[in-house]
Write a structure and sequence with these properties.
alpha+beta; Aminopeptidase; 3 domains; 42% helix
């Protein structure tokens, strides 16, 4: 029997002990402890699937090289009466097991034992890790937290804030009625005209593994553009962790497809008759005008209702689509425990932020403007980091010759060469998100975040991108605005025939004439010219290398067209 079990049995009183690393992992393998954990998890009123043994053990094993397991547990006699699963990160702080892949982090206990257990557990944890912060994000709404408001000691040691948690109650008739609305039907019909539209649940392991790469790319592209976060690129363990969750029956995976193309997807963690929006949630930017993400959510809601799931938890966050989908709202609580000075600083910073949020709208600044300013400040911060890593004298030399020409545009008439041998051309792809994620700022001061934001907007507006990628490096790209897509503002004054198209925004990493020629030939050879004609290639006169490359291939429409 484990020594902690023996100690508890002999004393017949609550015993709190902290187990770290190998000791914690060893306890997880003991059948008696596993059974007691499962029992405590099932009976705890505020527990979520993220506190289940299956989820926590899977995460510990998947991230064993980057997080140190830490368990705080208590027994009353032989009975497990309290459990808090944590992990120590690479800077020495303690986070809830699951870290950013566990939407809810909280201790397990009975209602009568909860306060005594968590106070003692935190006290013992600070004895073991005196310099650490302990972060619990987020505690569910029904977690007993009254002690934080009444205990002066813990009031000074804890910062907490409440966040809105949107929920979608799963009523099949209501959700079906949403799908029958005119605008939804029109979007569904437009998608059906593209091919066979199918909404499917993935239940086979191999089938999930076969689509996981594509879902990861769609996820990283969208979140990279919106939040500068590319979870799968930055976390090499993430895919294997999701595979293990799927194998253990903790992932609910659905796809919305047109023929073989995934246009929306959702892989949500499920347990205790809830499904949580935590895992993967994607949609194709090329189909954005048809709102495939919202259509997928509504179809998923109908399916979950048919499967007997009661609630689709949209999880804390201020995304507009969550507000629009939600039928109910509750709250969750973010908790940070630490030394009094750090906690005081966190409270002061939070209070100042809340004051500005409440005051600035009264002065005429709308909430969306505040959010936009915050986003712009983050983009600027990212660009400053990039500038610090670049050779500024080289950049100034590169662009000094273009001063005064930024408003001038060169236009060329593209003349496709028929019968070109594709084997003699470099490989280019159309609308390949994987290639766009390979972008690194080498010859420009456009950060990866800015690049992905711009690329997402262009794809959503109907533009197409042709890319040249080798060995994980994006060597070149060019954008195509056909008659059905919007054109960048800088090209809007060009008068072209109704069925004409424009190739523009050329980029090649080596920035030399030969590379531009090789890339452009390959792009033009891959154009489907039956859809539009004529085709023009446009370049800013300040970009001399691109202009020289295009000039060597195609006749100039005008010597200079100042727009």
């Amino acid at each position: 029997m484990n020594t902690l079990l023996q100690k508890a049995t002999n004393q017949q009183v609550d015993v709190v002990e902290i187990l770290i690393g190998k000791e914690a992992l060893a306890l997880l393998t003991e059948p008696d402890f596993q059974l007691q954990w499962d029992t405590l998890y099932t009976s705890c009123p505020w527990s979520t699937v993220f506190q289940s043994r299956a989820f926590v053990s899977t995460w510990y094993q998947s991230y064993i090289t980057t997080y140190l397991p830490v368990l705080a547990l208590a027994y009353n006699g032989e009975k497990l009466s309290g459990l808090l699963t944590l992990a120590r990160d690479n800077i020495g702080h303690l986070v809830g097991a699951g870290a950013n892949q566990a939407e809810y982090q909280v201790w397990l206990a009975s209602e009568q034992d909860s306060t005594v257990f968590i106070k003692q557990a935190l006290t013992d944890l600070f004895d073991k890790f005196p310099q650490s912060e302990i972060s619990i994000k987020f505690a569910p709404a029904n977690t007993p937290l009254q002690w934080l408001k009444t205990d002066p000691y813990w009031q000074k040691k804890c910062f907490w804030r409440s966040v809105k948690q949107p929920l979608l109650s799963l009523n099949k008739e209501n959700l079906s009625q949403e799908l029958r609305k005119k605008n939804r039907r029109e979007k569904l019909n437009r998608l059906k005209r593209q091919g066979e539209l199918a909404f499917v649940r993935i239940t086979d392991e191999q089938e999930f593994y076969s689509v996981l790469d594509e879902l990861a790319i769609q996820s990283d592209f969208r979140k990279g553009a919106m939040y500068n976060k590319r979870a799968f690129q930055e976390d090499c363990f993430r895919k294997e962790f999701l595979k293990e969750l799927f194998k253990n029956g903790l992932l609910h995976v659905t796809l919305l497809k047109v023929d073989d193309n995934v246009i929306a997807s959702n892989a949500s963690v499920t347990g205790k008759n809830w499904v949580h929006l935590q895992g993967i949630n994607t949609h194709s930017p090329m189909q954005a005008k048809h709102s495939p993400g919202i259509l997928h959510f509504l179809m998923l809601g109908v399916m979950l209702a048919e499967e007997g799931i009661s609630v689709f938890d949209l999880t804390p966050g201020s995304d507009s689509y969550k507000e629009n989908l939600a039928t109910d709202f509750t709250h969750a609580t973010e908790l940070t425990f630490g030394n009094k000075a750090n906690i005081r600083n966190k409270k002061q910073k939070y209070n100042l932020t809340e004051y500005l949020k409440n005051t600035l709208p009264r002065l005429g600044m709308a909430p969306h403007q505040l959010k936009q300013m915050s986003h712009q400040a983050a983009v600027v911060k990212e660009k400053v980091k990039l500038i610090k890593r670049r050779n500024l004298p080289q950049l100034f030399k590169k662009y000094i010759g273009g001063l005064g020409k930024t408003g001038e545009t060169r236009a060329f008439v593209v003349q496709p060469v028929k019968g070109q041998d594709q084997d003699q051309l470099i490989a280019v792809k159309k609308n390949e998100l994987r290639d766009l994620l390979c972008y690194t700022p080498t010859a420009t001061l456009i950060s990866k975040w800015e690049f992905l934001m711009d690329a997402m907007r262009r794809l959503e507006s109907g533009q197409h991108v042709y890319t040249w990628q080798e060995n994980g490096d994006l060597l070149g790209y060019a954008w195509l605005s056909d008659p059905r897509s919007s054109k960048p503002a800088s090209l809007s004054k060009l008068e072209i025939p109704e069925r004409g198209a424009i190739l523009h925004s050329f980029y090649c990493s080596l920035s030399n004439k030969a590379q531009i020629e090789v890339f452009t030939r390959a792009v033009v050879a891959n154009l489907d010219t039956t859809e539009f004609w004529p085709i023009y290639a446009i370049a800013n006169a300040a970009d001399k290398v691109v202009c020289r490359g295009l000039e060597s291939l195609y006749p100039s429409l005008t010597a200079s067209n100042n727009i």
